[in-house]
Design goal:
Number of domains: 2
Shape: globular
Number of helices: 16
Strand content: 15-25%
Low-confidence stretches: none
CATH superfamily of the largest domain: Metalloenzyme, LuxS/M16 peptidase-like
CATH architecture of the largest domain: 2-Layer Sandwich
Number of strands: 11
CATH topology of the largest domain: Cytochrome Bc1 Complex, Chain A, domain 1
Mean pLDDT: 96
Largest sheet: 6 strands, mixed
Distance between the termini: 48 Å
Radius of gyration: 23 Å
């Protein structure tokens, strides 16, 4: 799988990834705009704007006209918002990419943003926030990042604060788009059963006149931590949800792939160390998983789990013991050749399966184009994973899994005051 790239005169980057055996194709427009570019006065606007894109344009004034067009070709369309990017896509038969490009370019350049539709969608956003609040297994990741990054754009929820969402107006959307939705801050990626040359011509036809201007920059993350941190979100739940992890590295760091292998060994899949110790051996909870996540200037490795409220201390202790073991290289915790091989195959296998979908392929290349220093093809990534050694995994474990770097976020029926947090803080320091 290989990509082709060109840059239009307005700075917009175009990537095509031909997938000859595919009858479908995905057109994805990704913008270097997410919640980390927001302020306290407009927190949540990136996500709100994503919702408004499908609510009507000058050419197609209603949401039903847009959805009827896409339904009429048997396609699917959606959008997504992260902390650093926002994406809009249409997946359809490869013979319909002309229409997909027409609709997406129209949406991004000619949104109506009518007051009536904004008010209707405001209610939808507020209910989405309620959904996240009522789903602790989804919410715990946001709570963990709030602990890591504090009262900064990186620490705020992507969905925003309710009070802010209630006040956002059409002019707020226009100002936000006017600060980030520049042609040179976008990439258009088309993946699937396509011809690259014909696709480039179509993209230029629809996006070649898009405006270009200087864009806002994000506020850099300041990584300063000298002792373990605990945050408790009080909520009466039947299951306690925890996120226990450490600060790591940015997306372009050479430690990225060793950390990915470390996370897979600890909590990737049902044969991982933590799944075995937390769920299979002790029956402490239903789910347990470890992720390594990276942004442009920061990152984290975190284990999340849903735990029996009566056994939270035990679960935290078990996770910490696995962290300490693999980072101290005790004989019993040394990484074996078989364990490293399994972790590599786990990551590669999931990535290969994901790349069987043109939407995933488009997102894979788009995010690299916007956030990384260069683009790797799938084979390049697989090779980088294969090259990671046991020594490199052990080195990053020792480097990052330190007591002073530990962060614990909890959602459950616990006292969130300093006194309530103290018992968890003692667990993080225990046996150090």
């Amino acid at each position: 799988m290989q990509y082709h790239k060109t840059v239009l005169s307005n700075g917009l980057r175009v990537l095509t990834i031909p997938m000859p055996s595919f009858e479908s194709a995905t057109v994805l427009v990704m913008v270097g705009a997410g919640s980390r570019y927001e302020t306290k006065d407009n927190n949540g606007i990136s996500h709100f704007l994503e919702h408004m894109a499908f609510k009507g344009t000058k050419k197609r004034p209603s949401a039903i006209e847009i959805s009827t067009l896409i339904d009429g070709i048997g396609g699917e369309f959606n959008a997504f918002t992260g902390k650093e990017t926002t994406g809009y896509y249409i997946k359809s038969g490869a013979n319909h990419i002309n229409l997909s490009l027409d609709v997406l370019s129209d949406m991004l350049q000619n949104m109506l943003l009518s007051a009536k539709e904004i008010d209707k969608e405001r209610g939808v956003i507020l209910e989405e926030i309620n959904l996240y609040e009522d789903t602790p297994a989804r919410k715990i990741g946001d709570v963990f990042e709030s602990l890591l990054y504090g009262n900064t754009p990186m620490g705020w929820d992507i969905a925003g604060e309710k009070d802010v969402i209630r006040k956002i107006t059409r002019s707020d959307f226009l100002v936000f788009m006017g600060s980030l939705y520049s042609a040179n801050n976008l990439t258009v990626v088309v993946a699937g059963g396509i011809d690259s040359k014909k696709t480039f011509i179509l993209v230029e036809q629809y996006f070649g006149r898009m405006n270009v201007f200087a864009t806002n920059q994000y506020e850099p993350v300041v990584q300063a931590q000298e002792k373990p941190q605990v945050f408790i979100k009080h909520k009466k739940t039947e299951q306690v949800h925890i996120a226990l992890g450490v600060r790591t590295v940015a997306i372009n760091s050479p430690d990225r792939y060793p950390l990915a292998l470390l996370s897979a060994i600890l909590g990737g899949g049902m044969s991982s160390r933590l799944f075995h110790e937390v769920r299979e051996k002790r029956g402490l909870g239903y789910y347990v998983r470890t992720n390594a996540d990276e942004y442009q200037d920061c990152g984290s490795l975190v284990t999340m789990a849903g735990i029996d409220p009566k056994r939270v201390d035990e679960a935290i202790t078990v996770i910490l013991d696995q962290y300490h073991g693999i980072s101290s290289a005790r004989a019993a915790d040394l990484i074996s050749n078989d364990e490293l091989k399994k972790a590599k195959e786990y990551i590669k296998g999931h990535l290969i399966l994901e790349m069987e979908d043109s939407r995933s392929v488009a997102s894979f290349y788009a995010s690299q184009e916007l956030l990384e220093k260069h683009i790797d093809n799938l084979d390049d990534v697989l090779l980088k994973i294969d090259k990671v050694t046991k020594e490199e995994v052990s080195q990053v474990a020792k480097k990052y899994l330190k007591p002073t770097r530990l962060n614990l976020a909890v959602i459950g029926n616990f006292d969130p005051s300093a006194a309530g947090k103290s018992k968890f803080e003692k667990l993080l320091w225990k046996d150090q």
